[in-house]
Amino acid sequence: MSKRLNEQTISELAPLIESKQISPVDIVDAVLEQIEKLNGQLNAYIEVTADKARRQAETAEAEILSGNYRGSLHGIPMAIKDIIYFANEVTTMGSKIHQNFKSSYDATVVKKLTQAGVIFTGKLNLHEYAWGATNNNPHFGPCRNPWDVERISGGSSGGSGVAPASHMTIAALRTDTGGSIRIPSSFCGIVGLKPTHGLVSKYGCFPLAWSLDHIGPMTKTAKDAAYVLEAIAGYDPKDPTSINVPTPKYSEELTGSVKGLRIGINEEYFFNNVDSEVEKTVRNAILSLEKEGAVIETVNVPALQYAEYAEMITIISEASTIHHNNLIAREEDFGDDVRFLLKLGEIPSAVDYLQAQQIRLQLDREFKEMFNKVDVLITPTLPFLPPKIGQDTVLLNGNEVNFLDHIIRFTGPFNLTGLPAVTVPCGFVNDLPVGMQIVGPAFQEGRILNVADTFEKLHPELKRSPVALQNSI
């Protein structure tokens, strides 16, 4: 049975679009049909911009037929987390306070994707103000995991995980401050890339925590993530954190080989207190890379023992500064969980915050030393499987633990350091996907995407349809 157009990847669709074998209009129609079928159940979209998408598809078709093909994203439908601005369109930030907010300008990443010929299918659901990891949004409803609709999608970019996983878009763009790209990507069984801090402009994105925020792609494959990154990476003088570095053709760095690659494994932190079945799945994935010629080395990063403290102090302090005035004037307009976190963020002192920044510096030094010895670090993306919607606790090897205390343990250190990290599906436990996180030195996105791409090609058996899709056929 051949795949429907909306089920295909950028890598599959782009050559067919370029050769005029298929039309962007047909792809958009297939995506919108899937949205109509599934969004009521999964709640991935806050807003579906169907008319806009059809107009853009017709324009793309006309351009391509006239010989003006722009590249791999031309005519490709994408959806955007509803925290990234489009000029003169509502961007809600998943909130009540900003439910009618309209920006006067496009975010830099929106401009770049528009120039690449992307078609925008709508605005994706998120945890309120991106401040949470469940996407149980009190204003727009929870996102539901397509592998088990009673479970969370993960957050804050829940809609951005659900939409590509359930083929309600071809790819998505979203933010990551403590794991918000990688958490829902892992829980929903797709690829999620958090680029190096400063590689992708954040201009035109409502902040959660200035020094930790990143923008990156969530896609069906590693190669698709490379294509999207090629379009959005690059220096932007409008973003004070933007860094002027060369941006290669990341898709051309996918060699399909890991022979001689030195993989670092940190047992003390990243394989400590992990669900036993999740751990087994990730270790088996690493073993398959070793069989392909990779070399496994144990590494030590002592400052990781302080990473959770540094991440939490930094994120709550910066987030509460951003929302301070609204917390005073409109406290009751925040959801309960976000209000609690914002109040919590008013407590740390300047001493606490600056101590956290010293930990960041030490982590940065130790990771640089580590990457002198290995090429990549591989970890579980998350320590457990997604809990049921509404649960604040999760079972971890038979022990009931607080969800929030553990959810960013493995992702947060790379927001603190700004290092690039990608999660790729590496197996299943109880028919739920498990993610493997691959981390590299700064600006080595091509390297980590190559590992992810190589793993995908080694394991085509991992390509399965989520339960929600099976039930919709």
Automatic annotation (TrEMBL):
<protein>
    <submittedName>
        <fullName>Aspartyl/glutamyl-tRNA amidotransferase subunit A</fullName>
    </submittedName>
</protein>
<comment type="similarity">
    <text>Belongs to the amidase family.</text>
</comment>
<dbReference type="InterPro" id="IPR036928">
    <property type="entry name" value="AS_sf"/>
</dbReference>
<dbReference type="InterPro" id="IPR023631">
    <property type="entry name" value="Amidase_dom"/>
</dbReference>
<dbReference type="Pfam" id="PF01425">
    <property type="entry name" value="Amidase"/>
</dbReference>
<dbReference type="InterPro" id="IPR000120">
    <property type="entry name" value="Amidase"/>
</dbReference>
<dbReference type="GO" id="GO:0003824">
    <property type="term" value="F:catalytic activity"/>
</dbReference>
<feature type="domain" description="Amidase">
    <location>
        <begin position="26"/>
        <end position="449"/>
    </location>
</feature>
